Each structure stands twice: as structure tokens, then as C-alpha cells.
TrEMBL record:
This is DUF1176 domain-containing protein. It comes from the Bacteria. It comes from Sphingomonas tagetis. InterPro entries: DUF1176.
Amino acid sequence: MLTLALFFAAQAAPVAAPRPGPIKAFGAWVAACDNTRYCEMTSIWPEDSLPDGSPYEAMSVSIDRAPGPAGGWTVEIQLPANGGNDTLRVTTERGLDVRGKPSKDLLRFAGADAARIVAGMIEGADLRVGDETSVMGMASLKGSSAALRFIDAEQGRAGTVTAAVAKGAKPASAVPGPRPAPQIGFVRPAGAAAAFTPAMRKALDKSSECGSVYEGGTGELPQAEVVALGGGKTLVLLPCGSGAYNYSTEPYILSAGAKPVLAKFDSPVGFSEADDGKPSLVNADFDARTGRLESYSKGRGLGDCGSAEAFVWDGAVFRLVEARSMPECRGSVNWLTTWRAQAVAK
């Protein structure tokens, strides 16, 4: 939903240790703001009305607001599959009535219509979507006012005319602008990967105990992924156990003629690092085109909770360029962004 040009246009501040923004649950909503002051909130299932026939199962609502005095709202409503393309009404029992046509089962509002929806949510009990005679889906508005107040505070809007809930008399000019996203210099992947020999694999499996994770299984151990990072360095992603939907990997750096060493990261990976402090990637993926190393850890198979990170290699350390998470396992597959940086090739 976010257009990044606004944040990357400004000159970036010096690189510092990543400090992802806050993420909190409020009733049937989760809200988060990132390091640029960009904020999002998304609906989740109410605790007293979980799926299996619940009217709240059929749709989800995602709302974001750009930072700064002129920062506006965007509202996206994901509808049930095959919901049609006729004009639909977004309503509450308090009189809200905004209309729009879905595209590919998505209703999207910006500008004045989005602002009207947000304002109508503050006093309502449920946000409903349907036609003139029926309702196809609902989102509980329990906690939405608190989530909006959280965004007001994080963007410095409290007490100003731009606030959604915490309104005051201060002018829009009192609202701080966006923080610049840091620029991270990275080494573009190039060259050939160093040889990762069977003897190296055997030694790593033993020293890391990753080989023992697969004892009792059938067939051979999964292959390690070996890719060139550039600058004479090679990334080795060593398989280290698997579950029903998560596959763990330990990352190593290999130089020609040297033993593999554990890769270093400027921030923890996944929910947390292992007890021994070793970085453990989950469902790891390295994109040789962009140089991004990604980890995606699902809290359960549905994918409605967990954390995801993306890193780039600066020649010595993997540096965080994106972090997303969803702490509540209550139906939302829209994980919220808490950190973003711009990767710039050296």
C-alpha cells in the first residue's frame, strides 16, 4: 500500500543499529508504525468470535496513514472470493455509508472516502460491507479507536487538527514530517561461489548439530544452498531441521581456502535467536538479483502470525532492510511493517 518514493527522496540519516517501530494489539485490531513514522492497522478476529461460521471470517480490513502534515489515509478491504464487481456499501450502525466498486475482490479507498471511513469507525461497533439488501462480511471495531489514537501519538498528531481521535487546536504544521529511511550500502552478488566440499558439510553438520536434527529420517540430508555474495565471499545456507511449515537454516560465510564461519547480522532473526545465540533463518530465501536474504517464520500453518525479515550483505554483516510481523494468530495475513531501509549497491 505504501509508495516509498516519499521516504527515499530525502537524504538518508547515517546508518545506525536498527530500531524497529512499535506494534501493538488493541481489541480486534493490530497497529504498527515503522522507523519512518509510516503507520498501519489491520483487523483481526475478535477473541469472542473466532471462525467457523463467524461473520468476521469473510473479510479483513487494512488501513494505513502516511506521516507528515499532509499524510492521508488508505483503506483496503479484502472481500470473500468471487465477491463480484458491483458497487458495494461500507457502513456502520452509526450512519456511515461509503460506496465503491471492488477489483479482484479488493475494495480500495483513498482521499476523502478513506478519511470518512476512518472517522466513521471511531464510534461504530462493526464495519460492514454489502449491497442494498445483504451483508457479505464484517470487521469488529472493538479497539479501533485505541489503534487510531496510537497512530495519532506515534505520528505526532495528538492535539492537532489532523488527528483521527486525539484532536486538538494545533495546526497541521505542528505535525513532524517523515523520518528518512536509512540507506544501507550492500555488495551486489557477483562471481562464482567458493567450493563447499562434502568434508566441510560433514564438519558443519557435526559442529552445529544440524545433522543430528534429521536422525531417524529417510534418505539423504537436504542439500545446502551455496551462493556467491560478491567480494570473494560465499553464503552457505545449512539445513537445520524442519516442521510442518517452517524450515530452519543456519547461515555461514565461506571464503576460498578458509573454513565456514557463522554469518553476522545487525539484528535478531525471526521471533528470537536460538538460546546459543546462533542466527537461525526460517524458510530462508536468497535472491541473487536483488541481494536480499529473507527469513519468513510462520506462527502456524495458516500464516496469520509470525515475523519476516530481509537483509543485504554489506561485505561483513547482513544488515536489516525490512521487518514485518503479526503477533496475534487471529486471522490476519497482512503482517505489518516495523522497519524499512533502502538498499544501495556499493
